[in-house]
Design goal:
NADH Oxidase; alpha+beta
């Protein structure tokens, strides 16, 4: 029953949720705009905004964030207990993921009529407090409203449809996140795709030969019937249900780089475009800001029904990252991803707000 329910229409989700028929680890996606608590305390309204923040993408879906509400302020913390020391030793991906959650929070706030003041790392870069967001009710919506795309967004880890992207659409997406000291480069020609495919393949071979790396990443792989509230169910990679049962253990113990290289090579050569996002700085603040820009790009792309697939492997390896830097010639590469059209995919599990909410700011 649970597996079938995950494919029900959006119109049925609310009813099924009330009947307790949607699996607990997917219920976070059943958030309804109409449930916004109007006319009561600001704290309850801010708590509701967090229901959209937690739907942000994150590395291997490790959801490395915590939040605290204090009157009209939401404090956003890095949950370093969810870091991946062998996969993401600098925590670059972790802080980028927190930036994505911040983007959703700000977009939801504006949608429900809040202005905000954002203060990054108010206690310094060494603090786990990433940002304080002070909200003030204004009653007006600012800028393009990407709010409807938050619940429509999903990441592609399986094949794209054979459909080209309009160059005007790519330009519109690039213009949308045109921010000083951050850069977006597209690669659409076969030669560039081959070069990126080679880079990703070499990264896989190096990293998956390391047992510590495999076990660290493998801890976040999930079977297709997972009841965990985080991690990557293998249906997102197109892995059949029976195979998913033994795959996480096999991935941790054996070098499966040939299989992974084959899959990613197909994704890269079959995509409509590749993109590299880079920044002048390469510190925690740059990573968080990259995440905010990424999620805005992701949601804008979702508006066009364009989906993304990420290839962080070369960026996680110093020498291969240098090669990628040479290809783009400006900035530190922060994100490498592909774009294209895709059939609808199932969402991944989520922790609920209660699981990520601290009682008070520290």
């Amino acid at each position: 029953m649970e597996r079938a329910i995950l494919f029900v229409s959006n119109n049925s989700k609310k009813m099924l949720g009330k009947l307790g028929m949607i699996s607990k680890n997917y219920i976070a996606w059943d958030v309804q705009e109409s449930d916004f608590p109007g006319g009561i305390s600001t704290e309850d309204q801010l708590r509701f905004l967090l229901r959209y923040a937690i739907l942000a993408p994150s590395g291997p879906n490790n959801q490395p964030w915590k939040f605290a509400i204090n009157t009209s302020t939401i404090s956003v913390y890095a949950d370093l207990r969810r870091s991946l020391p062998f996969v993401d030793p600098s925590n670059r991906t972790l802080y980028t993921s927190i930036g994505c959650a911040l983007a959703n929070l700000l977009i939801a706030g504006e949608h429900f009529g809040f202005n905000y003041k954002l203060d990054f790392f108010p206690n310094g870069l060494e603090s786990n407090l990433v940002a304080d967001v002070k909200f003030k009710k204004s009653g007006t919506t600012v800028g393009e409203d990407l709010f409807p795309q938050i619940t429509r967004r999903f990441t592609v880890k399986d094949n794209y449809l054979e459909k080209d992207l309009d160059e005007l659409v790519l330009q519109d997406l690039q213009d949308f996140i045109d921010v000083p000291r951050f850069y977006l480069y597209y690669m659409t020609d076969p030669a560039s795709k081959s070069a990126i495919s080679d880079l990703v393949s070499r990264a896989h071979r190096i990293q998956l030969a390391d047992k510590d790396f495999r076990r660290n990443l493998g801890d976040w792989l999930r079977t297709n019937w997972t009841t965990e509230p985080d991690g990557m169910p293998l249906y997102t990679f197109g892995v059949p249900d029976p195979v998913s049962l033994g795959f996480p253990a096999a991935f941790r113990e054996f070098d499966l780089s040939k299989v992974v290289v084959y899959r990613d090579s197909g994704l890269i050569h079959g995509c409509a475009a590749l993109a590299v996002f880079s920044s002048d700085a390469d510190d925690k603040l740059a990573w968080v800001r990259s995440g905010i820009l990424l999620e805005n790009f992701f949601l804008k792309a979702t508006k066009y029904d364009i989906r993304l697939s990420f290839f962080s492997q070369p960026i996680g390896h110093p020498l291969l990252r240098e090669e990628l830097t040479t290809m783009i010639q400006k900035g530190y590469p922060q994100l490498l991803f592909s774009l294209g059209y895709s059939e609808s995919k199932r969402h991944t599990p989520r922790r609920n707000v209660d699981d990520v909410l601290l009682e008070e700011s520290s």
